[in-house]
């Protein structure tokens, strides 16, 4: 009888410990939960620009391409913020944004000797729908996502005085703009639950992004020259972050 009682008590203890561990290991990425995270973005543009086209001089249409011209956008880094709401155990809606950062416009072709010819500060938040694989309590959960991005730019300017003087003449001044755009996004990522609430994540996002650089130059003789350059940025973006799930 005592032997049976001991076995029964051990069974109860084991079941209690097992239940406690199950609760302890139950992860929070389930329907109705919210994750917020911070991390690091590395933005790697994959595209190039077309040739610069002089649209007008002193208000008269020209529409002449300048052979050998071109540029590309350099890589950059930013801090990231992310929030995701789990509609179900598998489907989530996520918002991702980066801190303000500066992108360099680097000359190609005949402009390569100038190096960095301009700078801009892009903002490119992403709203995406995610499908998470595996059960809500799985430690490792890969996901795929499709979304939409809106990109705009501030503080766009040509910064290389030698380039400006060579292109428009000594004593010239310039101002520049980059066009805004809506773009689709596609992402592959995964999260790993460290504890019930804390997790680490990694993702790769691609955005087929194109913008147009419009330059308004005023020569020393007060002649205005308007030129445009179409730039395919097409960034591949990697994300590393840490998230807390409520």
From TrEMBL:
Keywords: Signal. It holds the Pfam family OmpW. SUPFAM superfamilies: OMPA-like. Its main location: membrane. GO terms for biological process: transmembrane transport. It is found in: Cell outer membrane. It comes from the Bacteria. One of its GO terms (cellular component) is cell outer membrane. Residues 1-28 form the signal peptide. This is Outer membrane beta-barrel protein. It comes from Paraburkholderia tagetis.
